[in-house]
Design goal:
Blueprint lengths: L1 H16 L15 E2 L14 H5 L14 H13 L15 E6 L1 H12 L6 H9 L3 H9 L2 E3 L5 H4 L6 E3 L5 E7 L3 E5 L8 E2 L13 E6 L13
Parallel strand pairs: 2-8
Antiparallel strand pairs: 1-4, 2-3, 4-5, 5-6, 6-7
Helix pairs in contact: 1-6, 3-5, 3-6, 4-5
Length: about 230
């Protein structure tokens, strides 16, 4: 429990410094990329990602490769903080790209940060909730790149790009043979997230698009317990 509290304080503190706790997107999120510029695709649809993930937030299942936990987390933050910047996911007129950690990613994170295993999506989510809304909010915003609709085809051409997130921090895109798209976050202790290429271009054709990833990205270094 002490370890979880210290993790929550650390991440929340970083979020406050990054101004992610404000109700609007931070100013530094206006520029989506540095280095390699990723072109925005031809998109016109305005279906919001919140609409796409809403069904996952209504139930639990035994499929660790879908998005129940992140979806529950999004709506939990919006319920607790209606003015949260996470609400951008409900505004389909705002272009953005989200990287959605699957349920297995959260199970791995909980084990790394607490040293304890969880065996269901619900128990994993309960463990995530102990980190507190400010921490969850900051982590969610770190997975959102505002101002750019980046398809998987464009991401494959974006090796070396630094993406600025709605949390205010950045992460780097690394593309190598396979193909594999790796996202290098601010945490140096845990395995970097990789895009799940069978779960990309979610909500394609709309201004808001998402890609599945196999790890939760973190906006600052956190040494794991396990």
């Amino acid at each position: 429990m002490k370890a979880r509290r210290s993790i929550a304080i650390a991440v929340a503190g970083a979020a406050l410094l990054g101004t992610a706790m404000a109700g609007t997107l931070p100013a530094q999120a206006k520029t989506a990329t540095k280095g390699h510029v990723v072109a925005t695709g031809d998109v016109s649809g305005t279906r919001a990602l919140a609409t796409v993930v809403a069904p996952y937030a209504k139930s639990w299942n035994n499929n660790w490769h879908d998005y129940n936990i992140v979806s529950h987390a999004v709506f939990a933050v919006l319920k607790a903080k209606p003015s949260s910047a996470v609400g951008v996911l409900a505004d389909g007129k705002v272009a953005l790209t989200a990287f959605l950690p699957n349920d297995k990613a959260f199970q791995i994170l909980v084990k790394k940060l607490t040293g304890k295993s969880t065996y269901s999506e619900r128990s994993t989510y309960k463990a995530v909730l102990t980190l507190g809304v400010p921490t969850i909010e900051a982590v969610l915003l770190y997975h959102v790149v505002p101002g750019a609709t980046i398809t998987s085809a464009q991401a494959l051409k974006a090796n070396g790009a630094h993406l600025t997130t709605a949390q205010g921090g950045t992460f780097r895109v690394k593309v190598y043979a396979g193909p594999t798209i790796e996202l290098v976050d601010a945490d140096k202790y845990m395995t970097n997230a990789k895009v799940v290429l069978s779960q990309v271009d979610i909500n394609k054709g709309n201004k808001q698009i998402a890609h599945g990833i196999n790890r939760v990205m973190l906006p600052l270094p956190l040494k794991p317990v396990a």
